[in-house]
Amino acid sequence: MSGKKPPRPRTERRIAERDARRLVRDRERLAALERGGAPDHPIEVPSSSVIEVRARATPCPQCGGELAVDDHASEAGVRVVAVTCRRCHVARRLWFRIIGVDASGPN
Ligand SMILES: [Zn+2]
After folding, report:
1. What total number of domains does the chain contain?
2. Considering the domain boundaries, does residue 83 fall inside one?
3. Would you say residue 4 lies in a domain?
4. Is residue 104 in a domain?
5. Residue 14 belongs to some domain of the structure
6. Among candidate residues 105, 92, 102, the one with its CA nearest the CA of residue 31
7. What are the pLDDT digits (tens) for 58-78?
8. 69 CA from centroid of ligand 1 (Å)
9. Ligand 1 center to residue 68 CA distance, Å?
């Protein structure tokens, strides 16, 4: 084997950046599989008053930081909560479904 060039610093840096992006993407993909990460598997809560508490108690999938609740919306029977990580400032959404037994009607 001959002519094997040692990697240049720029190439190494590009590889490191690519690996970091891949790690971020993998964490996002895992987060989407977690309960609450997508509308088809929402976090089930007994009432809407629990949603913010649960959202804040969910750690950021990227850095483990605390999430701040920005907004709530009701979408196709589930609640969508827009959150932002207080530490790394990544915005994401969490899905919740209210499974209350207080017969307040379907949502
Ligand atoms: Zn974070």
Report:
1. 1
2. yes
3. no
4. no
5. yes
6. 92
7. 999 999 999 999 999 998 789
8. 13
9. 10
